[in-house]
Design goal:
CATH topology of the largest domain in chain B: TIM Barrel
CATH topology of the largest domain in chain A: Rossmann fold
Largest sheet of chain A: 7 strands, parallel
CATH superfamily of the largest domain in chain B: Aldolase class I
Strand content of chain B: 5-15%
Largest interface: A-B, 27 and 24 residues
Order of helices and strands of chain B: EHHEHEHEHEHEHEHEHHHHHH
Largest sheet of chain B: 8 strands, parallel, barrel
Structural class of chain B: alpha/beta
CATH architecture of the largest domain in chain A: 3-Layer(aba) Sandwich
CATH class of the largest domain in chain A: Alpha Beta
CATH class of the largest domain in chain B: Alpha Beta
Number of domains of chain A: 2
Radius of gyration of chain B: 20 Å
Shape of chain A: globular
Distance between the termini of chain B: 72 Å
Number of helices of chain A: 10
Distance between the termini of chain A: 17 Å
Helix content of chain B: 40-55%
Number of domains of chain B: 2
Oligomer: heterotrimer
Number of strands of chain B: 8
Strand order of the largest sheet of chain A: 3-2-1-4-5-7-6
Strand content of chain A: 25-35%
Structural class of chain A: alpha/beta
Helix content of chain A: 40-55%
CATH architecture of the largest domain in chain B: Alpha-Beta Barrel
Radius of gyration of chain A: 19 Å
Amino acid sequence: MSKKTRVAILGTGNIGTDLLIKAMRSEHLECALFVGRNFRSDGMQKASNLGVRLSDRGIEGIIAQAADIDIVFDATSASAHLEHWPALQRLGKTVIDMTPAKVGALCVPAINSAQILTSGAKNVNMITCGGQASVPIANAIAAVQDDIDYIEVASSISSRSAGPATRANLDEYIETTEQALLQFSRAKRAKAILILNPARPPIDMQTTIYAKIRNPDLKAIRASVEEMMARIVAYVPGYQLIVPPTIEGDKVMTTVKVLGNGDYLPRYAGNLDIINCAAIGIAETIARQGRE
Amino acid sequence: MSKQILISDPTLRDGNHAVRHQITKDNFAAYCKAADAAGVPIVEVGHGNGLGASSMLVGECLLDDETILRTARENLTRSKMAIHAIPGFCTIHRHLAMALELGVDVFRIASHCTEADITQRHIDFARKNGKEVYGVLMMSHMASPETLADEARKMEAYGAEGLVIMDSAGAYLPADVTRRISTLVDSLNIPVGFHAHNNLGMGIANSVAAVEAGATIIDGSARGFGAGAGNAQLEVLVAVFQQMGYSTGIDLYKMLDAADLAEKSIIPSLPYISSTSIVSGMSGVFSGFIKQVNRVGAEHGVDPRDIFFELGRRNAVAGQESLILEVALELKAAKAGEGAQYA
Amino acid sequence: MHDELRKSLRKDCLTSLEGAKGLPERLKGHRIAVVGGTGFVGSWLAEVVAALNDDLGSKVRIDLLGRGASAWTEAHPHLNRDFISVQAVDVRSPFELAADTTLVLFAAGHADPRMHASDPHQVFQTSVHGIGHALAVAARLERLQRFVNISSGLVLGGSPGNRALTETDIGVLDFTRFHNVYTETRRAAESLVTAFAGQYRIPVSTARAFTFIGPYQALDAPWALNNFMRDALSGNDIRIHGDGATRRSYLYGSDVAAWLLKLLLDGRDGDIHNIGGLEPVSHTDVANRVAALTNPTPGIQHRSKPGSVGRNHDFYPDLTHTIDRLGVHQTVEINAAIEKSMRWHALRLGVMRRLREDARSQ
């Protein structure tokens, strides 16, 4: 009998398929079911080639196999998640929500894995890609600085890595990222900007974090950010600091880059990779706890 | 009846770029009053990058959006108040909803010329609230006329009532404008507009070419007050269109007065075409690279102008600052290689 | 393969490459995937790539994906090289491409009208579903520089006739008719390419194929020229069915490959380029040229003239846009193309004696 925690992935697009490949590589997780609404999607065919069990019945497919599933990743859309959640809640399943629906507890593994576990949260929201890249840094700065007036995060992603879902949900992206920034940095105000860059060859995902701080202690900030980096790199190997925290006028700024793993998506799509790495990260933490 | 041209005036928006977004409340009020008196149909106000763009990334505005909109609204009676909005900087809930509430009449929703599909919901919001909405394609020289038409069609499908292309780098010559505008006029069922920049001294000529190719919306700023080498000079446009027999509905004398006012009180130094503006216009490169190109060029002994041209050849866009160093180092190595041949 | 044939093909490739300047240098480090690559286009591209690497100092890799993978490998032992890989793939299902692929050419499809008549469903699936899968996997390629769809000049539909067809001579096509399914699938494929390009920002260009000729094209393929050659090499009279005045132009295989490589490198987004021969030649004229190369000279019989005379079925491209923009040249003109093709088939069939003496060697 397998000792791995059994996951179902709902949503067979690029995010879901990349999650599948990461889950299959995990020591602690195994994919019990890959669920969508159309067997002919490229993700479904990929999963079929990998020998994974499939269903094209959407949430009904999960309900039917509920006994074989411990954790569900919802990689569909915010509106679809709002429909899925009540059913999943009734089944008592832990859900990792990849959409900006924000029903559950916001999670950045490097910051609050432990709290997510102790709270026993059944709905864990992965915020946004830019959020996973920037919120831990904002949090690291807040750890050594009281009273941050304002935090701003500007992410640029390649136009090619931004599919229709991203484009139709820019506002949700901004609002969700800002909410997470406020929660995890206790800044008075937060702003998130997302820029799609059409350059060729496609650029790697890059995020700059600005903080307005009255008396910044640069040494402490750098040390705190470095420590946070180490925690992030543990589950996002391609995360790099390209401009360490620097003071420019009245602001502290720092820039990070995320190079994706290239599992299913091109490496320049680090934006998609980081949210998946974070989701797998928290799922593994939950899995490990579940077996203790 | 002579052909009508709809003038849209971004003096108090594009001009904000020239003063790092520090236009004062008094100046907003004063110019709005003057433009209103002159009968300028649409007056655009705000941060250079539009609603919600005040940020550390592109520069913090002296005034918040709410103050700007209130001030403008108080001083515009006949003229319509417009905002420029780029999805990704602004959101519907926080920014467009506020703009609606504060009486914005015209919503100009903008994207990079190949990314029109980010504007769907924002255009839809303005439309369903009964407001005038235009789609705007920025840095339009970076796409072929056919691609521009495809992107414009998307905005039309989303509900845009007019489509404006911007020559953000000031790269066009009149023939380029003619080709693009005619392609758009042929492809769309909505009016087409043009926003010129003056890097190659073509602001007026390009605007005239646009009109002759079928554009009916033209952007122009008082004294050309705007980013980089400035926009098409509005009061000159009004005069030229009058000479050509087009009708703008704008009172010439009062327009000249508004421009005089802008020069006297609002514009610290009049726009002119600098050497760097010429080079960035010729190479079609985002003029915001200027500082960094100069710095990197000085550091590595490479002529910044050569860097600009190479960036242009590679279709560099804003956000590719790292490319500047790469290009400089390559040019440096190439020069060294040449030298070695004659050693 | 016959040594003489191999050398002959190599010579053709080098000649065509001269007509496309700069390719060896510019293709260095590229990896080309030819989807549906075990046919005429894939085979010629493999030959050209071998010429580039062996004789012109380039360093290109090419992957041919298709259903006839094992048969292809057996038939082309001289192309069993470390820079050429062959993969068994049916494009009607999703497939993978090498992660470092930089150029993708979609060449899958069924051009044979007999197939259109007997299995149009498969024709549709190959062209439309197939290109969908190719586009989806190309969208995930990190280093993709260009995707080229080889479409057909037939998409232009009801043509003006009696002149060269430009890329924009778009005419009416009655899509409700069975015999138009193939053409409609090519149009649908072009549409799908446009959708992907517009939505997923993939750099794509389109090649509109007209008539190609040369080795690696089956003698029994139902094109007029192939029929004439088969008749002649079988020792029979050449029979022309239908209107002998109908004109086609022909582009030789190595030129096709060179032009496609140029399009892969220099194509611009959304560009459409005709690929075909310059000189329109009537069927009667072509039959005469085939006859002239044959020993003894066969007779030419005009069979079953169609009822409606005067309806024009000319089909040949205007190449202005292609030649101006891509800077390519046709290096093998029609007579040489016919001669080379006949020699190829004659050698393989063991009927060299049926070629006129002076046509038996290069």
